[in-house]
Amino acid sequence: MANSLHKNFETLRNIFEEVLKMKNGSGERERADELTEKRKYASLLFVLIKKVNRMVKYSLRSGREDLHREKVRVDSNRLHLQNLLYEVNHLKREIRYCHKFKSQDEDIELVPEDEEKTEDDKTLMPTDMTPLSGHAKHLARLERELNLRKQLSAQCKELLNTKQQVFRDIILKTEKLTSFAPSLRTLLKATRPLQDALQVPMDREWKLQQLVQLLPQPLYLAYMNIHALELAKECDVCVVVVGSEDDVRQLEIAAQTEVVKSNASSDTDELDIGSVAKKRKTHGGNNDLLLDLMQEQRKRILQPHPLEVRFTINNGAKSMEESITVKLRYFKRLGFVSAATVISLSDAEQNYADATLTQDVLKYLHDDDVGDTIPVPGAEYELKHINMTTKECLDHLKSKEYGRPYRWLQKMCCIEIFNDANDTSVVATPTEQPKLQKMIPDLIKSIQQLWNYRLNLIKQIRALVQKHIDLYLKEERLPTTRPACSLVQWTALTYEEYATSAPYNDSELVNGNQLYYRAVVVRGSAKMECLVSISSKFPTESPLWFICIYWNGQHNAMNSAAVKAMEFWTNSLTQAQLQHPLALLATQLVRTMYSFDIFLETEGPLYNPVEYHREKHYIKAFAKRIRARPYRYIEGGTVNTFKQ
Which residues form a coiled coil (predicted)? Predict the structure, then answer.
């Protein structure tokens, strides 16, 4: 079709050229006829070209339609393939989920397959007696497990009913036994003269616990004396024995075995030592064997008795939440008893009681007995035998939370101790031991008093940390107007921090066994820092306050007479001058805050610009000028007046 169209175009071009030549040539008549023929033929060619053109357009349109149909078919096939690919991926995911599927019955321990089948299993088999598939077999096992559990549930209900019946029988027999007890006590009381004559105290033997009989002698004496106080209700104390009877039996068997081995190997000790020394020489001084032997021997010597005695002292008539428990452990090879404390506080005090308030409470019982030595003769020799010093032994006791070997504790357990802590050559005789009937009640009361003092201190510290200064000051004679300054911080300090912060330090008044705190009081741009040292004899001895004021320089007792007078006014307060037993620290703090206000109000007008004005009433009790500030206050109705 394209060739025909090109051919017609070429023929039409030739006709145009011939017509042009005819018009330019001669013989117009002859050429007119021929020209007419040429024009007719050219017109026919135009018709033919138009026909061919239409045929080309029709062919193009049909081609486009065929192309569109093919594109639609290709798109449909592509979409179908994509749907198939999505379905394949979906099926793969489902297959993975099926592989990862875990049934809930997999955690159930089913009855083994090799056990005999019950009658219910026969009903699960098909009628044609074909073997069960894996899934059907699993379903059968689940059905058998369900039936078995139903049977066990029925048996459990039957056993519970039997248990209730037995419980009712026990209650009935207990009631009968309770009704029989008064008659038995009457009979026992009537036969007491016979028991005394035969020296068979049956009632005392019945009350004695089995664990108590296994206690070593020192702990047994301590237990019986404290238990007697508990029964007599002379002190608010409760004593128990903690430990296992099996451990005691094993310890006795091990001790007997060790004795037998030591007797059997007594003849070969020198040979063994020589062989060990020879091995050390041949192996270049390898002492691993000796170290192992030393560690094993050290472990045996430092091992306490499996049983321990614990006595708990409550806080008088207060709640049982606030108590102190003393644990007594006995070291047979070393020959002494150690004591450790466990503090129980209520939730309110526990949150504000730091470690220094609850540790080593017993070492403050006596000033000369802080548990830093071992006062028992023979203990030092045993420690030298295992190459250990006294300090290392005490550190070991502290790491194991066994406590300290106090001198008063050895006396309470009737253990011989040195006469003098500084003289280790003289050993006390048993006749020098004090009477336990008087000593132990005094010790219990002293520990209870010390615990009450420490608990009162914890409550006062909690009030100051929470900035509840007026909590225990309602009964005291204080000015009605509040101090203008405010307490912003009350924190605990270590002895090293206190020693570096204090302007001066007196070893007789301040030492490492005391408690230290820092109080920060602020008024305007002035700041007062108070370093407080609380003695172990609190509240018998008042806390010692060091005051340092930061305002227009640093003012302390070393460079300011006013601050020295402030410290005297604060430190001169004692518990005997107060009404409430918990008001000592708060009253000292309030005195210091009033003194701080007076210091600023009397020194403020001397500086420009004036920051602090006189807000309190002062009187001058002397005719001549004196340098003392009016720190003391007197009652004057609704107006508080301060004087020198």
Answer: none
What is the pairing mode between strands 617-618 and 639-643?
parallel
Of the listed ranges 71-85, 317-331, 392-406, 477-491, the least confidently predicted one is 317-331
- Joined tokens for residue 375: 């006062």
Pair type for strands 639-643 and 515-523: unpaired
Query: Is pTM beyond 0.85 here?
Result: no
Bridge partner list, 313: 237, 324
Query: Alpha-carbon dihedral of residues 458, 464, 467, 472, nearest 10 degrees?
Result: 80
Provide the token pair at 488: 């912003």
Alpha-carbon distance 356 to 374, whole Å?
Answer: 24
| pLDDT number for residue 42 | 82
Name which of 302, 303, 295 is nearest 250 in CA terms. 303
Contact 498, 510 (CB under 8 A): yes
Residue pair 557/511 in contact (Cβ under 8 Å)? The answer is no
Answer whether 218's CB lies under 8 Å from 330's CB. yes
pLDDT for position 452: 86
Secondary structure of 289-300 in HEC code, one letter for each residue: HHHHHHHHHHHH
Please provide the DSSP assignment of 254-282 as one string: HHHHHHHHHHHTSTTHHHHHHHHHHHHHH
Residue 528 predicted with pLDDT over 90: yes
How far is CA 523 from each of CA 487, 552, 594, 606, 611, rounded to the nearest angstrom? 9, 13, 11, 17, 10
